[in-house]
């Protein structure tokens, strides 16, 4: 039985988000998870093209590799956001991430917002009031 590459791309695309959730930390940066998904999709595309070429590396068509990798990546993103994350399987609070601690990727750092003009104005006003109150003679 011969399986077409497009169906293999779609099937592996559904499995990829679960694999990414399995090997990354639940609090890893989204960029780490995206890069891992793109890498796995490229590897999947290369394997699928190699299967189509009957294992002959010289006969591999790079357009087929690219098409299979893109199809796998798009199927993985669609499966993650459309099926697996809403079902609670993948994602930061999904069953896979919460059930298996550890993995690749450092915890996502919290980025503080830059101070606004209003914040700076309040800080200067507070500093001015504290210096004004502290500089006068006591007892008046």
Topology:
Layout: H1 5-23, H2 30-52, H3 62-84, H4 95-99, H5 117-135
Helix pairs in contact: 1-2, 1-3, 2-3
Number of strands: 0
Radius of gyration: 26 Å
Overall 3D shape = elongated
> First CA to last CA: what distance?
97 Å
Describe this entry's structure for a reader.
By secondary structure, this protein is mainly alpha-helical. The chain has a domain at 5-99. The chain is 64% helix and 0% strand. The protein contains 5 helices and no strands. The protein has helices at residues 5-23, 30-52, 62-84, 95-99, 117-135.
Main attributes?
5 helices; 140 residues; mainly alpha; 64% helix; elongated
Concise account of the structure shown:
The chain has five helices and no strands.
């Amino acid at each position: 039985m011969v399986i077409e590459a497009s169906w293999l791309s779609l099937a592996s695309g559904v499995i990829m988000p679960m694999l990414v959730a399995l090997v990354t930390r639940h609090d890893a940066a989204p960029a780490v998870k995206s890069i891992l998904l793109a890498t796995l999709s490229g590897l999947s595309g290369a394997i699928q093209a190699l299967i189509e070429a009957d294992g002959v590396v010289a006969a591999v068509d790079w357009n087929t590799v690219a098409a299979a990798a893109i199809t796998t990546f798009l199927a993985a993103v669609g499966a993650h956001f459309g099926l697996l994350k809403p079902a609670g399987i993948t994602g930061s609070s999904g069953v896979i991430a919460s059930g298996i601690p550890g993995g690749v990727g450092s915890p996502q750092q919290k980025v503080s917002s830059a101070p606004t003009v209003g914040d700076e104005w309040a800080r200067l006003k507070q500093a001015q009031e504290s210096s004004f109150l502290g500089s006068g003679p006591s007892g008046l």
